[in-house]
Amino acid sequence: MKTIAVDKLSKTSIGGLRAEIDVSIEEYTDLNNLAMVILPGGFSWHQKRYSKIAAFINQVIAADVPIAAICGATIFLGSHGFLNQVRHTGDSKDFFKEYTEYEGEDLFVEAQVIRDKNMITANETAAVEFAYEIYKLLEIDTPEAIEDWYENFKHGFVR
């Protein structure tokens, strides 16, 4: 699996997990070989426009590649108009309203996670539900095994 970032100089650490970048988004052109784009959450999505990532997401959508975004990454999608045609969720509808490109207010659903077409969106407290929808969309295992995984991580091993 390749890690794709804005540029090869990017080094990132999320929760202490360091990712080393294999290729920049400008260099990555084989969208037919891309299973999904997963946008992790965080506060920086509120602070920056990330125009290079937005251009890449336009290409991904045109190629009909699934996208999954959680927490602040949903704001990025909304702020660029990517959620104007799909049901979606996020941390708060009010966050989306701050951006003039966001016209999807009627499609916002207060839920842990929403999957509509090739778009998965989740609020910040929905890590298990987010992973569950990704696993189902990518069909990483049998439906029964995915259900067992979800039940275990959602409700715990000991009940």
UniProtKB/TrEMBL annotation:
Keywords: Hydrolase, Protease
Domain DJ-1/PfpI: residue ranges: 3-136
Record-level GO cellular component terms: cytoplasm
A Pfam family the protein falls into: DJ-1_PfpI
Gene Ontology BP terms: proteolysis
Coiled-coil ranges from the UniProt annotation: none
GO molecular function: peptidase activity
UniProt keyword annotation of Transit peptide present: no
Protein name stated in the entry: Putative intracellular protease/amidase
